[in-house]
Design a protein that fits this description.
It is found in: Cell membrane. Its main location: membrane. The protein is an all-alpha fold. It is built from 15 helices and no strands.
Length: 284
């Protein structure tokens, strides 16, 4: 064995230790706030005031969650249902409209197709906050302020980001498959449903997850277009709890934990798709 190999064998374990140390530190920094949120939500206000903030909650209590769902603070159960309905409708509509638009841009030939696509894609460079006031005025003129459809309507149609990703994915599907289907008499609808969509499940799952996370955490638009508890979503309800009980961190952390829980379950259930989505959105 040469001296270079001996040196490499000595360095490699040290390198691995360094890599794992960085990874563990990063994991603690990312997971630390979530763990602290869950621990605090399981304590009583007296425990939080008299013990260390890092002390384990004992005895465990669900008092904070019971108060959230009792309706004495905010109607949290209604906020969860409103958020679930809002996110579900947005996911379905955005995927349907984005798939149709992306198929047209990828596989249909019509005058001005590419110019129209790039003009539409350029709207990605417009900050979302710039469109808030025009959207608010339009929704108010339609009489939809402080309604469920006022909450949902601006997000029903396909997003430029989703259309761009789907178009690139559809263009990667071999043209020979489409041509063979056309020779067998298939039209555009049949090609889309029988060939394009089954081969595009990874990117569709990716966009579904991205849309769910984005709109579950949406705060600005629901805060502006709704007032009062009737159509309050989970993010605005959590902010309302924090405003009313700024000193009572156990209830605030219980609301935060409930807001995070569906996203954690989503990650556990679809972790393979989420990992593959990172690769798809990074390299395509």
């Amino acid at each position: 064995m040469t001296s270079a190999n001996i040196t490499a064998n000595r360095v490699r374990p040290l390198t691995l230790v360094g890599i794992y140390a960085v990874l563990v530190t990063g994991a603690l920094l990312v997971l630390g706030p979530f763990i602290l949120s869950v621990m605090t939500s399981l304590k009583t206000p007296q425990q939080l005031a008299t013990e260390s903030k890092l002390a384990l909650p004992w005895p465990l209590t669900l008092e904070n969650f019971e108060r959230l769902f009792s309706g004495e603070i905010v109607d949290f159960s209604r906020s969860i249902l409103v958020t679930a309905g809002y996110v579900g409708i947005v996911i379905v509509c955005q995927l349907v409209f984005s798939i149709l638009a992306a198929y047209a841009f990828a596989r249909l030939n019509f005058p001005g197709r590419d110019a129209l696509f790039w003009v539409y894609l350029s709207t990605l460079m417009v900050p979302a906050v710039v469109t808030i006031i025009p959207l608010y005025l339009m929704v108010s003129e339609l009489g939809l302020r402080n309604t469920f459809w006022g909450l949902v309507l601006p997000y029903l149609f396909g997003s430029p980001y989703a259309i761009f990703l789907l178009r690139e994915y559809f263009r990667g599907i071999p043209q020979e498959l489409v041509d063979a289907a056309r020779i067998d008499g298939a039209g555009n609808w049949l090609i889309l449903i029988r060939i394009i969509l089954p081969l595009s499940r990874p990117i569709i799952a990716t966009l579904g997850i991205i849309t769910a996370v984005t709109h579950w955490n949406n705060f600005m638009w629901p805060l502006i277009i709704t007032s009062g508890p009737e159509w309050s979503v989970i993010t605005t309800s959590t902010a309302s709890v924090q405003t009313q009980f700024n000193g009572n961190w156990t209830i605030v952390m219980a609301a935060t934990t409930l807001a995070l829980l569906p996203l954690i379950l989503l990650f556990v259930a679809f972790n393979k798709q989420i990992v593959s989505s990172i690769a798809i959105t990074s390299f395509r």
